[in-house]
């Protein structure tokens, strides 16, 4: 009688198990937050020597580090674990030299860190009346809050994914410099918002709308110029030269912006930052900002306008003809060069709209803003079906949901791995995306 050999786990399951086990010890987000507090107690370069989880009912960790003054440690205790809504709320800090911080010291640390109370919570005796204990509705309310947060992220990815999909639909090529057009839009919006603030016009919606329109027009011209000076000359090539040229343009835009405006971050004043309470159980409140509603309306309006242009105008018909067969469209009199240049301009304007959302809602824009955002939007376009306009918005919504929910319920350090892992799975099992179609031109 032959004995059956033991069955080994597939490599994929081992990889998933390894990722899950890495999150069973110290939460990477909590360790990063605790690490940011070290400069409040020690100056100079910091070298982390070790991170360990501490026992207790609430999750806690201790960082051991070395500075010019010697080896020290800082301990941080948080209000929740990986799957709980309070996992980012710091409730206690202690150091080897000061012991547990007193309430006033904790308050001063919060002010020094510049973090909102939701991220760096106060003890009950400092932060006001004690909150009600969580109810059975709290998980559902937390879920609804993440849906609201994901909608704004989906707008950014969806708008930029539209720029990718329009260019790919007509040329069968990916313009990797599209992310840098988003960066230009974000930087110009931040500068325009700063100028409005200095002029005392930052609270006027029409003034902000004027900045939006100006930035979109300027970036549309950038897209048109990009095609006119670079891609039109490479249109007849049948190799990867256009892709390499796009990479070169991306680097040139990044370095040009860095040399012109420096590497510092721009933080424009928040736009329409009024907070509205939607639902509450006494322990957790679902809120939304006025700016989030404006962003959703703007994105919906731009998508509806694009749909009308593609369906009702001469340019839309020319674009659809070129997407079906460039050679046949040229034979029946379609001006290919003008159609492609207009497509680059429209894609640049949509990329600028995504950049404006980043600047006014998230802030912290710099010359490197468009790099990772561009690749994620490309992933959204591929997932939705690159070349499909509805697919671009669908892919942006899906990627925004996945990224937001992963950040809320799991360690945020892995969210980029998840985003590009999703792209890899679609490339393997559904290369045409959710709403894409097979192309017959060899691309």
From TrEMBL:
Primary location recorded for the protein, binned into one broad class:
membrane
What are the subcellular locations of this protein?
Cell membrane
Keyword annotations for this protein, in alphabetical order, are: Amino-acid transport, Cell inner membrane, Cell membrane, Membrane, Transmembrane, Transmembrane helix, Transport
Entry's InterPro entries? ABC_transp_permease, BCAA_transport_permease
Determine if Cell inner membrane is one of this entry's keywords. yes
Pfam families for the chain: BPD_transp_2
Q: How does it sit in the membrane?
A: Multi-pass membrane protein
Name the domain of life: Bacteria
Looking at the UniProt entry, the stretches that span the membrane are 150-171, 283-310, 344-365, 377-402, 408-429
Family classification = Belongs to the binding-protein-dependent transport system permease family. LivHM subfamily.
Name used for this protein in its record: Branched-chain amino acid ABC transporter permease
Species source reads Azospirillum formosense
């Amino acid at each position: 009688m032959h004995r059956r050999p033991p069955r080994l786990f597939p490599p994929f399951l081992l990889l998933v198990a390894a990722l899950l086990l890495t999150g069973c010890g110290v939460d990477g987000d909590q360790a990063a937050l605790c690490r940011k507090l070290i400069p409040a107690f020690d100056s100079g370069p910091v070298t982390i020597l070790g991170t360990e989880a501490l026992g207790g009912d609430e999750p806690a960790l201790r960082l051991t580090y070395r500075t010019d003054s010697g080896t020290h440690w800082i301990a941080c205790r948080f209000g929740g674990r990986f799957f709980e809504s309070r996992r980012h709320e710091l409730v206690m800090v202690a150091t080897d030299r000061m012991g547990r911080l007193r309430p006033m010291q904790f308050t001063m640390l919060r002010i020094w860190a510049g973090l909102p109370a939701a991220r760096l919570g106060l003890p009950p005796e400092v932060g006001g009346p004690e909150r009600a204990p969580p109810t059975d509705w709290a998980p559902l309310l937390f879920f609804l809050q993440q849906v609201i947060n994901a909608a704004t992220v989906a707008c950014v990815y969806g708008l930029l994914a539209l720029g990718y999909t329009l260019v790919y639909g007509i040329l069968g090529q990916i313009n990797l410099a599209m992310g840098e057009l988003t960066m230009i839009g974000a930087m110009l919006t931040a500068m325009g918002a700063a100028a409005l603030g200095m002029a005392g016009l930052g609270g006027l919606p029409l003034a902000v709308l004027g900045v939006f329109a100006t930035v979109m027009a300027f970036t549309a011209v950038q897209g048109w110029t990009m095609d006119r000076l670079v891609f039109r000359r490479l249109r007849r090539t049948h190799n990867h030269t256009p892709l390499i040229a796009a990479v070169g343009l991306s680097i040139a835009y990044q370095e040009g912006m860095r040399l012109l405006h420096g590497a510092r971050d721009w933080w424009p004043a928040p736009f329409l930052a009024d907070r509205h309470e939607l639902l509450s159980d006494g322990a957790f409140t679902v809120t939304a900002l006025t700016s989030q509603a404006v962003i959703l309306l703007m994105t919906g309006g731009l998508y509806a306008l694009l749909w009308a242009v593609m369906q009702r105008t001469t340019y839309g018909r020319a674009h659809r003809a070129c997407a079906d067969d460039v050679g046949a469209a040229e034979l029946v009199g379609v001006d290919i060069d003008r159609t492609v240049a207009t497509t680059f301009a429209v894609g640049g304007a949509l990329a600028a709209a995504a950049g404006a959302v980043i600047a006014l809602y998230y802030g912290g824009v710099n010359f490197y803003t468009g790099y990772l955002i561009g690749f994620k939007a490309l992933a959204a376009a591929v997932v939705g079906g690159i070349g499909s306009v509805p697919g671009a918005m669908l892919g942006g919504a899906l990627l925004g949901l996945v990224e937001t929910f992963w950040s809320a319920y799991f360690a945020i350090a892995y969210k980029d791995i998840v985003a590009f892992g999703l792209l890899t799975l679609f490339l393997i099992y559904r290369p045409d995306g959710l709403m894409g179609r097979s192309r017959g031109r060899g691309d």
